[in-house]
Amino acid sequence: MTDTNNISIVTELYGNRGLCWNAVDGFQSFILIQKQTDIVIGDRVICNELVSDECTIEKIVAQDNSLKKMSANGRVQNIANNVTNAIMVLSSQPKPNFYLLDKLILIAELNACKVNIVINKCDLDHASLKDSLNYYEHLGYPVTIVSAKNDINKDDLLSILKGESSLLMGQSGVGKSTLINWLLQEETIKTNMLSQKNQRGRHTTTTTKLHIMYDDTYLFDTPGMENPYPNISDKHQIQEGFREMVSNRNECKYRDCLHINEPKCSVKDSMLSNESSERRHSHYVKIFETIS
Ligand code: GDP
Ligand code: ZN
Fold first, then answer.
1. Model-level pTM?
2. Ligand 1 within 6 A of CB of 150
3. How far is the CA of 65 from the centre of ligand 2 (A)?
4. What's the mean per-residue pLDDT of the chain?
5. With the C-alpha atoms ordered 219, 224, 227, 233, is the resulting torsion angle positive or negative?
6. Strands of 165-169's sheet, edge to edge?
7. Does ligand 1 lie within 6 Å of residue 130's CB atom?
8. pLDDT digits (tens, 9 = 90+) for 24-67
9. Residue-range definition of the domain harbouring residue 50
């Protein structure tokens, strides 16, 4: 059995050095030994004793999940481990990308993360976006409405983050960085030694970083979450991102129906009967076609 008191969480990585944090000792610098190159932000680790202000990592605790993205050169990269709460950020400007939303929901579901939807920029007209998201609310994904820039409904957002390790996802320009800066104005945010030493800005987002908001509440700061990667080995897994398929898939003619163009497919019939689910079905088919 692992003694949870000794467990720290990795908050930053720079080459073979990094920072980890636990509620008792605060932040600690560590240096990696050669074979520990697969360590990821959010990993839980057990550290050895400090030697001149630096420790080594004795053990990486098995992770619950691992979120991945596709880099520019087509390689799959781990970006964050042990995420419990995926926050899908949308705004009325730029124009909402519902395909990206459905793909992100799939990734969150495959990783057993909670899903929360946030409409940012509520100072702009968001009535039609709110309407489009009613369907998602019915599926069980709560929608929270805020404005980072105008400081509206911060408590609502804090309440969905409380006790979770959250990652903000969504297309570029919806206000993810602005939201993080806004959230990190809280007085309780722990200052981060290594960032200060390196004189980096508090949230330069060139690499992933984990902010400790409260002892039990963490916020991933992750650049480039526009190109997430669903780690799928079997095409049937895509249905995990589409909750509405689960309820009536037993009524399809074929037991292993994929709900694409099989005859007597009750999932497809029911999804095509409503505008929102019809769009979701088209995204399901699109994801299906992009996964080889
Ligand atoms: P990111 O690409 O998702 O990280 O988005 P940014 O945080 O860079 O924000 C994109 C733009 O949206 C910036 O010009 C922000 O000032 C603006 N923005 C962020 N939050 C709000 C808001 O609540 N209302 C309005 N009107 N603009 C916002
Ligand atoms: Zn079917």
1. 0.91
2. yes
3. 29
4. 89
5. negative
6. 143-145, 114-119, 85-90, 165-169, 217-221, 209-214
7. no
8. 999 999 999 888 888 999 999 999 988 888 999 999 999 999 99
9. 4-60
